[in-house]
Amino acid sequence: MTGFKPFVKPNIIVVGGSFVGTKMVDLLAPMVYETHNIILIEKNSHFQNLFALPRLHSVSGFEHRAFIPFTEQFFQEADATVASGSKTLPSASTRILRGEVTSILPKKVVLKSGEAIPYEYLVLATGTGRTGTASRDKKAGIMACQRHQGRVKKAKRIVVVGGGAFGVQLVSDIKSWPETKDKHVTLVHSHDRLMNRFHSGLHDIVTERFKELDVNVVLGKRVVVPRKGFPNGLGKEFDIELSNGESLKADLVILCTGPMPLSSPLRTLSPSSINPHTKFIRVKPTLQICTSSGAVEYPNVFAIGDVADTGAHKAAKPGYAQAEVVARNIEKMIKRVGGDSRNLELDEYNKNVPGIHLGLGIVSSLSPSRC
User: Fold this and answer.
1) What φ, ψ does residue 89 adopt, rounded to 5°?
2) Distance CA 352, CA 165 (A)
3) Cα 218 to Cα 190: distance, rounded to the nearest angstrom
């Protein structure tokens, strides 16, 4: 028999292996494993438990546990949805590839190494971060945590910049951990209330807790960051200039201001889909990327989580809900012959009511029911 070609399953690529990206694979794999492969592309060697990082500034000894290896068992949760006795399992159609996507083209993504990987559907879950500063492997990540711990331990006067979840939790842990609780800590936030993306009552709760912990709070003022950064680690006090001309003294400054959306790889495919001011990726309610005019030029490309401009607050819970919408939409498009989504009714994401599980010290936390 001549001309026979074995069936090769096309790829669905998910870029970004943090909480939302891995959830995307867990949800999608049971739906499409018989017809598609799913490739998760992640630049870091290990899954990083971002929720542990604030505490790792003050508490030592468990930093290695914040870095979880990507193994063959990573997506076995998807297998639980398939009937026992099945010859193939969803996890068998998943693959984790370490690499950094530098550009996206209509039918393939290109890695920093030059490797090009084809896709039929693409989901961007790249999140936010500070380009060039993240630890790419476990060893470097542990060393970074230990460096932060050493600086906090030596410091006497600490200024934390940023009153979002990361800054609030970091300060609360420093002031409630026995080895660091006697540090003089000031939190500076540019808005007039802490946790300003949530209900105003959350500010009141956090403020009350900060009084208990003896945390100094400066609101409505910005810290002027020197071009060469702050002279941390020298064991000497220095002046920190505020936007109104006032100043603070500290021997350690920890920046917890909002990181930038990691949307730059999309510039090669659809630059108009990136908001030039915020750098978030524009999306339709279906979570398909769109241009500034709202046009969907690439219906097979989606964005979810912190990198997507959905109107929702940036957290894992809304990202999970977005992943559910995208999984259903990709399944619908695959079932439609040729994957043509025109005149196909796709699911839409309705943004979640802002809520958060917020740590307010080593043994104190706040559940979403109180936010």
Assistant:
1) -125, 155
2) 17
3) 8
Q: How far is CA 63 from CA 48, 59, 133, 330, in A?
A: 11, 8, 18, 37
d(CA 78, CA 22): 11
Handedness of CA 128, 132, 138, 141 (dihedral sign): negative
Q: pTM of the entire structure?
A: 0.91
Residue 258 near residue 128 (C-beta atoms within 8 A): yes
* Domain residue limits at 191: 154-256
Q: What are phi and psi of 192, to 5 degrees?
A: -85, 0
HSE at residue 119, side-chain half, CA atoms within 13 A, is: 26
Residue 291 to residue 48: CA distance in whole angstroms? 32
Per residue in 13-53, pLDDT tens?
A: 999 999 999 999 999 999 999 999 999 999 999 999 988 99
Give yes or no for a contact between 202 and 288, defined as CB atoms under 8 angstroms apart: no
Distance (Å, rounded) from C-alpha 277 to C-alpha 289?
Answer: 17
Q: In what order do the strands lie in the sheet with 121-124?
A: 94-98, 37-42, 11-15, 121-124, 301-303
In this structure, are 196 and 275 located in the same domain? no
Q: Cα–Cα distance between 322 and 157 in angstroms, integer?
A: 41
CA–CA separation, 329 and 19 (whole Å): 20
Query: What is the CATH classification number for the domain harbouring 275?
Result: 3.50.50.60
Q: Shortest CA distance to 174 belongs to which of 188, 186, 192?
A: 186
Locus of tokens 């990691």? 262
Retrieve residue 27's tokens.
């949800």
Number of domains in the chain: 2
pLDDT digits (tens, 9 = 90+) for 61-119: 999 999 999 887 778 778 887 766 677 888 889 999 999 999 999 999 999 999 999 99
Closest CA to 207 of 360, 77, 9: 360
Same domain, 189 and 247: yes
- Give the number of C-alpha atoms closer than 13 A to the C-alpha of residue 4, restricted to the C-beta side: 3
Say which residue the tokens 């208990």 belong to. 212
**pLDDT (tens digit, 9 = 90+) per residue, 238-282?**
999 999 999 999 999 999 987 899 999 999 999 999 999 999 999
